[in-house]
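Bumping my old thread because nobody answered last time. Still need a sequence for this structure:
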């Protein structure tokens, strides 16, 4: 992995724009600004850029820390268009099938093309044929509306509806509703809680614009953007934590780092958790009370347990399809478990040495972050639970493991400072989506927010869009 960090002697005392955090939103925002001639500094506490979109290496195996694939990387979709604008080229492998869905009572492969998926569902659920056609038309219209800058009639129509309510309005077949709900783990809230708009943004993005894996791993995605940022003249300080944000009369003046540097700028972008931004970095007495109380009362999304396995080349993993494995047929999903399992070496064999293989598992976590007293005990319990589940799918797997690592919500918090290790910023519920999420603007005229805590929401495609929007807001100011 390259060392992108600035030489201390090159650090300026003043920039046009300072971006706090080198998550994907911060990187995209900074790169657009640098491309348009702004002097930009990105400050990142981790030693590598990318936030959740990073990888780590153990004994020759390259594991993706969190992100497994990216939506909308085709040339007409959001990520594809953004990379083109920035003149960035990344080699992606499109996933085909896009996914697979497993319940104890049935399984379905989700094809890479949305029309093939609709055909498959119509064949499987013939009594819902007409409704399926209406639903996908409506879902696609709603998806398009999420890109409009005005309050589109479709957004108004669905703004108070959960995804479950939307499905109930269209369908009666319970198995079909389970199928169309199975991928809710990609957005973090179950169908009876997740906003119909949020689920639509995530699902149609994958179904219509495809799911892609960046060859070489997700770090490659973040590194390539970082390199372009530097090529456009941007400065990045890694292993550098913003410790205080200095304010004066509703204006942000500067930032101090844990190493004691004090740097000023005309404009600031926070790509980090708003609770940290407004309650720790900024003196909260200088922040508008109603804004502070909004931030204080918002609820974080779920976090996950992650298992990373490096395996020898002697076990056949062909039967292990990438996708969601639900452990019960309960459509309510309250308290039910699922595992998202993938074999990234099936897509990109270069991630492991000598034809060896990788399994990556994301497990839903029933325990509340604040209720966990002993994280080591939790980690061992979840490790055992996950390996036992894998053993049912691939007998004898335990005897083929060469490398094992795991991450808990605490680990995700430690690496990113996202509150409670939140995977997706604020939970994507009806009360926290669209106009109810935090806007890009803040009570400080020269402070903007980019990333999954703000609009349009979580996931790499959405945060790319968020970083791009904020850059445009600054450039058009
Ligand atoms: C387990 C898991 C799996 C996921 N899988 C997918 C997937 O397959 N596809 C997908 O599209 N999305 C996925 N997501 C969601 C996606 O990863 C996030 O929504 C997205 O990466 C968030 O990007 P971001 O730019 O908002 O910020 P983050 O990635 O949260 O980055 C914030 C950055 O700010 C830095 N920072 C924090 N505090 C400071 C400070 N004081 N000073 C300096 N720097 C600081 C952090 O170190 C971090 O680098 C997944 C998330 C998780 C947790």
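Sorry it took so long. Here it is:
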């Amino acid at each position: 992995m390259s060392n992108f960090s600035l030489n201390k002697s090159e650090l300026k005392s003043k920039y046009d724009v300072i971006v706090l955090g080198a998550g994907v939103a911060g990187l995209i925002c900074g790169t657009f600004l640098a491309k348009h001639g702004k002097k930009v500094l990105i400050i990142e506490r981790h030693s590598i850029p990318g936030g959740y979109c990073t990888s780590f290496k153990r004994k020759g195996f390259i594991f993706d820390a969190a992100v497994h694939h990216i939506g909308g990387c085709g040339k007409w979709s959001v990520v594809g268009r953004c990379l083109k604008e920035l003149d960035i080229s990344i080699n992606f492998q499109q996933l085909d099938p896009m996914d697979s869905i497993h319940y104890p009572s049935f399984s379905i492969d989700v094809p890479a093309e949305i029309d093939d998926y609709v055909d498959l569902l119509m064949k499987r659920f013939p009594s819902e044929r007409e409704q399926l056609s209406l639903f996908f038309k409506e879902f696609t219209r709603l998806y398009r509306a999420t890109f409009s800058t005005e309050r589109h009639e479709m957004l108004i129509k669905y703004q108070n509806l959960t995804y479950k309510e939307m499905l109930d309005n269209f369908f009666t077949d319970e198995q079909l509703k389970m199928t169309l709900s199975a991928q809710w783990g990609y957005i973090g809230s179950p169908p009876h809680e997740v906003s119909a708009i949020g689920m639509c943004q995530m699902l149609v993005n994958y179904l219509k614009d495809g799911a892609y894996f960046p060859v070489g791993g997700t770090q490659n995605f973040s590194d390539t953007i970082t390199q372009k940022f530097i090529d456009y003249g941007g400065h990045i300080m890694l292993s550098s934590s913003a410790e205080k944000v200095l304010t004066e009369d509703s204006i942000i003046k500067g930032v101090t780092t844990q190493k004691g540097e004090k740097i000023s700028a005309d404009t600031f972008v926070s790509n980090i958790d708003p609770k940290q931004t407004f309650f720790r970095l900024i003196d909260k007495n200088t922040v508008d009370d109603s804004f502070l109380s909004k931030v204080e009362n918002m609820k974080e999304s779920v976090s996950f347990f992650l298992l990373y396995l490096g395996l020898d080349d002697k076990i056949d993993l062909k039967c292990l399809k990438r996708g969601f494995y639900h452990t019960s047929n309960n459509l309510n999903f309250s308290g039910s478990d699922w595992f998202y399992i993938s074999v990234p070496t099936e897509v990109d064999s270069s991630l492991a040495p000598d034809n060896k293989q990788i399994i990556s598992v994301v497990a839903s976590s029933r325990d509340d972050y604040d209720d966990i007293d002993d994280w080591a005990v939790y980690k061992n319990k979840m490790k055992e639970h996950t390996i036992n589940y894998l053993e049912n799918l691939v007998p004898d797997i335990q005897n083929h493991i060469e490398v094992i690592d795991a991450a808990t919500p605490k680990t995700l918090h430690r690496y990113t400072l996202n509150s409670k290790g939140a995977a997706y910023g604020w939970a994507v519920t009806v009360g926290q989506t669209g106009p109810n999420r935090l806007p890009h603007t803040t009570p400080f005229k020269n402070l903007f927010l980019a990333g999954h805590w703000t609009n349009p929401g979580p996931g790499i495609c959405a945060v790319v869009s968020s970083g791009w929007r904020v850059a445009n807001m600054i450039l058009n100011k």
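The radius of gyration is 22 Å. Let me know if any region looks off to you.
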